[in-house]
Amino acid sequence: MKIKLKIFRCDPMGKGGCEPFLQAYDIEAKNGMTILDALHLVKDKQDGTLSFRRSCRSAICGSCAVNINGFPKLACKTQLIAEYKKNEAIVIEPLSNHRIIKDLVVDFNPFWEKINKIEPWLNPVKGFLTEEDVSPISGKAFFKETSNGVNRKGTVSHHTSSIGKQAILKINDSSKCIMCGCCNGACNALEIDKHFIAPAALAKAWRFVGDEREGEKKKRLEKLSEEHGMWDCIRCIHCTQYCPKDVKPLRQIERLRAEAIKQGILDNNGARHVESMVDSVKRVGRLDEAAMTFKTLGFLRSLGMIPFGLKMEMHGKMPMPLIFPQIEKIEEVKKIYEEIEKRKRQVEVKVEK
Ligand code: SF4
Ligand code: SF4
Ligand code: FES
Questions:
Q1: How sure is the predictor about 319, in pLDDT bands with cuts at 50, 70 and 90?
Q2: Domain range 2-106, CATH architecture
Q3: Relative to the CA of 65, which ligand 3 atom is closest?
Q4: Which of 47, 33, 110 is nearest to 77 (CA)?
Q5: pLDDT in tens, 28-41
Q6: Higher-scoring residue by pLDDT: 161, 239
Q7: How far is ligand 1, taken at its centre, from the CA of residue 186, in Å?
Q8: What is the topology classification, in CATH, of domain 110-262?
Q9: Which ligand has the minimum distance to the alpha carbon of residue 197?
Q10: Where are the domains of the chain?
Q11: For 214, which DSSP code?
Q12: Cα angle 44-45-48, degrees, rounded to a multiple of 5
């Protein structure tokens, strides 16, 4: 069947600078063809000037991520005919939230800088990896490599660890990342703040914070709790929705946040917001936005939020902040909290035993 592709074109280095436009190409689509196959066909047969990235053609290397009909996807993993039938069009554009270099090629330097920032290598607890401690499935290879300093900056394979199955499962999803950038391309927080560390680096950060052998968890979490860090995520869930490898970046961000709170890293707006939210539901059975703002931002900074609060009030988005009524069945909410506390204590007793 004949399909019309509309492909984003732009050449900032060319004459006249970048004036983006969509260029149409008609191709003969065959069953089994991917979007990447279609791009190759255009480049080979119709227009050699078209630029795009690819390498493995097998959803492994992560280099062919582009926007297809508005959503970030791997071109080599997306079936052309199925995509066309779903949308009655094929529009291919560069990944959002990235500077365009040419056509579908974007600048990945900021992406790698952020990955580098989280120090994507293991800093094992001293003495954790002794010769005796290495499990039968893993091996001495890992012990030897890390003990002499080789591979300190590499990603550690699951099969070379001494951690148990449960511990492996905890970091399994974050280990599946192929660094394609689809999550960053879909991230709403990154769209408004280019300094936001963004989901790919945060998912990778959990790979190490969640590793039982990691010796610098607290230091990592403190760094991730700084401005533009993990608390700036607005939980829109796009990263998880568009990740082609089921890494579930938002899940890893939630794990990082929970671990930071567990480790007592509370001196930041994000942790304070969580605490005030828990406190508010416990106290009145719902969110008391006015009190939460004061607890999160402190008195002075909260004053600046008053116009915003009034606007919310006018649109019925904020219940009366001063005479805030408890919900009717507040006692039931309190019982839930008591039950949680009871279960927590039971778990602690079990662990102590
Ligand atoms: S959930 Fe957070 S990190 Fe993920 S895309 Fe949304 S804002 Fe970005
Ligand atoms: S988390 Fe998923 S979407 Fe993000 S870079 Fe890794 S594989 Fe790609
Ligand atoms: S070309 Fe490697 S992931 Fe698509």
A1: low
A2: Roll (3.10)
A3: 4
A4: 33
A5: 999 999 999 999 99
A6: 239
A7: 8
A8: Fumarate Reductase Iron-sulfur Protein; Chain B, domain 2 (1.10.1060)
A9: 1
A10: 2-106, 110-262, 269-352
A11: B
A12: 55
